[in-house]
Amino acid sequence: METTNNSGSNQVSTQEPFKPKKQFMGHPVIEVDCDTYEKCRNGKTPYERWKKYFDDNKHSDVIEYCKKNNSKSILLQNKTGGMSYLRNKEC
Predict the structure, then answer these.
(1) Where are the domains of the chain?
(2) Which residue in 2, 4, 31, 86 has its CB near the most CB atoms, within 10 A?
(3) What is the pLDDT along the chain (91 residues), one digit of tens a residue?
């Protein structure tokens, strides 16, 4: 559990770290919207940043999960059920 204190106030906010709800064959499954799934379906081209594929505002929890668990691969799942496998080097 992460605890932060804003310097300007006395309020302490606690946030649970993001944890995928599902697993498939030992890999975490993360549900994303159709647009993000289509962008990531074929992987990224070399020397291109992942910010082009993941919107920081909508998927900040996914980005943080990949950074903290960089030895794990993940599966992205479309709302309709399609899955795409992302290797650990690509997170």
Answers:
(1) 18-90
(2) 86
(3) 555 555 555 555 456 667 778 888 888 888 888 888 888 887 777 788 777 877 777 777 777 887 788 778 888 888 888 888 887 664 4
CA distance 18 to 34: 21
Its pTM stands at 0.64
Asked whether 54 and 63 are in contact (CB, 8 A), the reply is yes
